[in-house]
Amino acid sequence: MSSLDSGKRVVRVLDRALTWEGTREDWKLVDDRLEQLSSAVSEGEPRSVLRAVVVLERALGQRAPVPITDGRPRPQGIPEPTRETVHRIWHLTGEPEPDTSAGASDGHQ
């Protein structure tokens, strides 16, 4: 896998993390995986990046639907510290970040 391919895959998983929902415990796991990805991207070794992406993809896919009546905490959107980590990693890839301003999300620029 080329560094260009791994960079695009990193961007896809980071984009997914921005819209994912999980419980506080789910986000702790994702945070750990994001730190692994950050280290791998910083090192610049495509195989390490790929391994870290796969582990993060699994973490983002682990949460099962939570029944409304089971009493467990409800899934929440991305916490701000996690969002900052995602953007830090995105910056390391050199890929352009999505426009997350209010106007861009509804088609108004």
Describe this protein's structure.
With 109 residues, the chain is an all-alpha fold. It has one domain. It is 65% helix and 0% strand. It has 5 helices and no strands. The protein has helices at residues 3-19, 24-43, 46-61, 80-93, 102-105. The longest helix has 20 residues, at 24-43. Residues 102-109 have low confidence and may be disordered.
The termini sit apart by 35 Å
| Mean pLDDT figure | 83
Strand content: under 5%
Poorly predicted regions are 102-109
User: What is the tally of beta strands?
Assistant: 0
Gross morphology is: elongated
N-to-C series of helices and strands: HHHHH
Tally of DSSP helical segments: 5
What is the number of domains? 1
CA-based gyration radius? 15 Å
What labels would you give this structure?
disordered C terminus; 109 residues; mainly alpha; single chain
Concise account of the structure shown:
With 109 residues, the chain is mainly α. The protein has helices at 3-19, 24-43, 46-61, 80-93, 102-105.
Write the layout of secondary structure elements.
Layout: H1 3-19, H2 24-43, H3 46-61, H4 80-93, H5 102-105
Helix pairs in contact: 1-3, 1-4, 2-3, 2-4
